[in-house]
Amino acid sequence: MALLQPKLKLKVAQRQVLTPGLMQMVSVLALNKLELKEMIDTEMVENPVLEEINESVPMLDQVAGREEKLERSAEEATVTPKDVFNEIDFGSYFREYLDPGYRTQPEFEESEKPSFENFLSQPTTLSDHLAWQLGTLSLDAGLAEAAEFVIGNLDEDGYLAASDEELASAFQQTPENGVAEEIQPEENSASLEMIRRAIDLVQQLDPAGVSARDLRECLLIQIRAQQREFSHLYAKPADAPDEDSQRSLHAEAQAHLDERRRSMEVAAMIVDRHLHLLQKRDMKALARAIQVSPEEAHNGAEFIRTLDPRPGRIYNREQTRLIEPDVVFTKRGDEWVVSMNEEDLPSLRLSQRYRRMLVAENTDKEVKEYVKERFRSALQLMRNIAQRKSTILRTCEVIVRRQRDFLEKGIEALHPMMIKEVAEEIGVHPSTVSRAVANKYAHTPQGVFELRFFFSEGANGPEGADTPLLVLKRKVRKLIEEEDARHPWTDDQLAAMLQAQGIQITRRTVAKYREDMNIPSTHQRRRREV
């Protein structure tokens, strides 16, 4: 049996190691202006060596110089004492205090002010809105808990994806109800019944359509809610007036009400059994299927258009993201110039006071080591910020040189450009260019665009005249928007029209771009006459 013995073994290998300085350089390069400002503010709080150059705010060394000057003036005052009492201007003194509009300056007074948190607003989510409505109802504890459980399982669109059995099983195991060792059939049936009652309750809350299983149920809930509201408002028809003019107006209003009521009934029939025919926009087939006139089918379809297929989105909207351009493209004469937008960015410098601490002989050794380490960190940060600026400027100079036609003519003159090509031109790795343009925006005469907007592949045309995919998709969308709705273009026809413009493209490519832009097919876009 072989014994385990320790052995020394040498191995030569190469591997890439990211030093802390290199990691910081990579992270700083990927930051936009707002994120960089936040990072600099954080570093200034953590690193006392860093100071902001601001003429309105005195630096630490300036404050120290003023203190030394005050000390020297105090020493001179002790050598040549003066009678301070004789220097008082009693005239102005009494005028200030006798002025009825005078108020003492509360230099050391701190008033109790409300926190800024009291002024911050938080958008109401769908769960908050439903829970608020639930709190206004008088419900027993079990039903209220089940309704809260159902609300917690809604997705951002307001739909309920889990089945009744899954919800009942999960509701039984909630901490409020405790975890049963063995669930009895009677308990399971009671929980299932409670969940179904809770679902029906949530479906009656605002917005109408929440807690539905699918699109069909969501639309039916909204139609029934409007039918109940309509019947409640116009339950008792008013007696016809005596005069002929008023009688005709009353008959016309009653006809509009009947038409509206009939549109709701037809819409409910369409959604309940023939939603697939509505997607095809075939009004004649739809009218035959539900045995109504084509005009009634058209009115029912128009009523369905007023419904919201995603009722929860009105409370779950994405928050607006602030955008501030990092670079500005301006034209001076015949040349385009790239300039960094460094407004509101702190200008950093190293503290003179801490420099003197390093050369002072009476400074403690541990303090010197700490200050040295802080100086290294500050210098590394300032170098990385300068490197970020240089990389972004060089990248944007290439963008401006290659996209000059876009800056002068507009988006139709955009040229294809790859990140790899720009990286080779400025002599860096493509990942460096990718980080330099990530989440950064440029202010141009054509508007504010993300730097990644200028990078796009091209579809080859005759004589090497490439067309960017972005422009190509816009051409496809424009052709579809200008088509006759009764006779929409097929993918083959769209490809032939683009080829006539000098763009070599196939039918499959057109279909792919159309699907990427969520544009329906030719059959689904066709509108048939009623």
Outline of this structure?
The protein is 53% helix and 6% strand. It contains 22 helices and 8 strands.
Describe this structure in words.
The protein is mainly α and 530 residues long. Among the domains are: 126-203, no CATH class; 215-234 and 251-314; 463-525, Arc Repressor Mutant, subunit A. 53% of the residues lie in helices and 6% in strands. It has helices spanning 20-29, 33-46, 60-79, 90-98, 126-135, 141-152, 164-172, 185-203, 215-233, 244-273, 275-280, 283-290, 294-305, 352-359, 365-402, 404-409, 419-426, 430-437, 469-481, 491-500, 507-516, 522-525, and strands at residues 50-52, 327-332, 335-340, 348-350, 441-444, 447-450, 458-459, 467-468. A 4-stranded mixed beta sheet has the order 3-2-5-6, with helices on one face. A two-stranded antiparallel ribbon has the order 1-4. The radius of gyration is 37 Å and the shape is extended. Residues 93-120 and 461-465 have low confidence and may be disordered.
SSE sequence, one letter per element: HHEHHHHHHHHHHHEEEHHHHHEEEEHHHH
Gyration radius over CA? 37 Å
Query: How many beta-strand runs?
Result: 8
Helix-strand makeup class? mainly alpha
Distance between the termini: 92 Å
What's the helix count?
22
**Strand order across the largest sheet:** 3-2-5-6
Largest sheet: 4 strands, mixed
What is the averaged pLDDT score? 77
Low-confidence stretches at least 5 residues in length (pLDDT < 50)?
93-120, 461-465
**Percent range for helical residues?**
40-55%
Shape: extended
Strand content: 5-15%
